[in-house]
Design goal:
Layout lengths: L1 E5 L10 E6 L7 H6 L1 H12 L10 E5 L5 E6 L8 H16 L5 E4 L11 H16 L18 E5 L5 H22 L7 H12 L5 E6 L1 H7 L2 H7 L7 E8 L8 E5 L1 E5 L19 H16 L4 E11 L11 E3 L5 E3 L7 H12 L6 E6 L3 H7 L4 E5 L4 H12 L3 E3 L17 E2 L7 H10 L7 E5 L17 H12 L2
Parallel strand pairs: 1-6, 2-4, 2-5, 5-6, 9-11, 9-14, 10-11, 13-17, 14-18, 15-16
Antiparallel strand pairs: 3-4, 7-8, 8-11, 12-13, 15-18
The protein binds ligand BES, manganese (II) ion and zinc ion.
Length: about 500
């Protein structure tokens, strides 16, 4: 679906379907009045009959003679509409439109004043919700015919001075789509090689982009013991994919993003239980997040230098697998006692974080579906942020609110560090039952000393139900953060 801005008045729109909101018990609707004709009389009659009141969840369809189909969605009480309410109302309406014959939709949900949502945020919410609702996964369906998709274009009506916000939202939508594509594709297709190819295609044909894929042998020479240990039981050889975007002067320090790219996590020798193990195809959603954000940053031409680092690795049980009890020397030189091969994310991240620091980044952020404990703590609503840098959480929080892709902070207090102590190495790779998300963060903090670093655990946000699959979160938050940084 193409996303475009329109500044047209609603009665001049050439769209075949129009999407309009209506507040509960509002006596009139300015947009419908502008449309006039039989739509206005029909609407007035149905309001009068209380056929439609504007309650959230309600919707009605009006037919304009020789004109568009008008879908009016209830937004509830004007003073009560929250960002979540607007996002969900838009999502539901566009999901229905995507199943209809609509080809070109004029979306008039972002050009209205909302009590609790500012204009920039409304443009983003409405656009992101629409793009999310329209997305369909068909990559591995052989029979697509019964499943025709008509919706081609969405024109979002906005004021002239909001064009920038719509461009940003459209770029976020591209990044989210890339992330969902990577996340949803099955582990027999989306393996380390596939991720490397996908990233190569992004960089190719772009003057400001570069790609470098470190292979197994190169990493062996470099001494990336922790990263390689995880992949040594898999026939799919590990790769470290490095994308670079040069949007600013060469002397400007890059922003570095690291994304966990476990293309399938069986747990290894510490094998996971059978039920829902298929969901561990999503264990590369950190990688998908940073690649998605890279796509959006390039599309926007942001005036920053950006580097994304993706360790792409498969965690399998095998005769060659690493085992509980192994002591591994990481790229940093620090040794790690493996007490659980299922705590593999931190193993591949620590070496990648060490490597990323060689490029002297101004900020270093990592994204990972790192712990089941994060889903217990925050559910599917917020990604968890851990950092020791003052102000960094606040910057991520702001970006999350701007895009309705929210984050919440967990502490990285030194008191938690002792849970990683062991007799046999510099640290062990698990911290026991209490504070599982935090001790994973503590582990990473031992490899990022002195950096402006934050760790974002996206185990609860990157995917939800089997039906929705990968959500593309937190690409929108991350892109907004990059936009905000580019203006500093
Ligand atoms: N990829 C998982 C984390 C995960 C589990 C995300 C379930 C989403 C849903 C990670 O590699 C893992 O297995 N973590 C372990 C860590 C434990 C062994 C310390 C976990 O969370 O159980
Ligand atoms: Mn695991
Ligand atoms: Zn994992």
């Amino acid at each position: 679906m193409k996303i475009k801005a329109t500044h047209q008045a609603i009665h001049e729109s050439k769209a075949d379907h129009l999407l309009i909101g209506h507040f509960e018990k509002a006596p009139t609707n300015a947009l419908i009045d502008q449309l006039g004709g039989n739509a206005a009389t029909d609407f007035a009659a149905r309001i009068k009959q209380q056929d439609f009141t504007g309650k959230s969840g309600q919707s009605i369809t009006l037919y304009v003679d020789n004109g568009p189909v008008v879908v009016v969605v209830g937004l509830g009480k004007a003073d009560k509409l929250s960002p979540t309410g607007l996002y969900e109302a838009t999502h539901k309406a566009v999901a229905a439109l995507a199943k209809s014959r609509a080809e070109k939709v004029g979306n008039y949900l972002a050009c209205v004043e909302y009590a609790q949502i500012d204009a920039a945020q409304a443009v983003k919410l409405v656009t992101l919700a629409a793009a999310h609702a329209e997305y369909r996964y068909e990559d591995t369906k052989a029979f697509k015919k019964g499943n025709k998709h008509h919706l081609k274009t969405m024109e979002v009506a906005i004021a002239e001075n909001q064009t920038e916000y719509l461009q940003q939202a459209a770029a976020m939508a591209s990044g989210i789509q890339a992330a969902r594509h990577l996340g949803n594709n099955p582990p027999n297709i989306c393996n380390p090689k596939y991720i490397a190819k996908y990233a190569t295609r992004i960089a190719e044909g772009h003057k400001k982009c570069e790609i470098n894929v470190l292979n197994h042998k190169q990493m062996e020479k470099m001494g990336m013991g922790a990263l390689l240990a995880v992949g040594q039981g898999s026939h799919n050889k590990s790769k470290l994919v490095v994308l670079k975007y040069n949007g600013a002067d060469a002397d400007q320090a890059p922003i570095a993003l690291v994304g966990k790219g476990i293309t399938f996590d069986t747990g290894g020798i510490s094998l996971k239980p059978g039920p829902n193990m298929d969901e561990m195809k999503y264990d590369m959603c950190g990688a998908a997040t940073v690649i998605g954000a890279f796509v959006a940053a390039v599309e926007l031409g942001l005036p920053i230098n950006l580097m994304t680092f993706v360790p792409a690795v498969e965690n399998m049980p095998d005769g060659k697998s690493y085992r509980p009890g192994d002591v591994i020397t990481s790229y940093s030189g620090k040794t790690i006692e493996v007490l659980n091969t299922d705590a593999e994310g931190r193993m591949i991240l620590c070496d990648t974080l060490t490597y990323a620091q060689e490029f002297k980044p101004s900020v270093l952020l990592d994204f990972a579906t790192l712990t089941g404990a994060c889903v217990v703590a925050l559910g599917h609503q917020a990604s968890a942020v851990m950092t020791k840098t003052d102000g960094l959480f606040e910057d991520l929080k702001t970006a999350g609110l701007q895009t309705h892709d929210r984050v919440w902070e967990l502490p990285l207090w030194d008191e938690y560090q002792k849970q990683l102590d062991t007799t046999f190495a510099d640290m062990q790779n698990i911290g026991g039952f209490p504070a599982g998300t935090i001790t994973a963060g503590c582990f990473l903090s031992r490899f990022t000393e002195g950096q402006n670093w934050a760790h974002v655990d996206i185990a609860g946000t990157a995917w939800n139900s089997k039906k929705t699959g990968a959500t593309g979160r937190p690409v929108a938050m991350l892109v907004q953060y990059l936009i905000n940084e580019s203006k500093k």
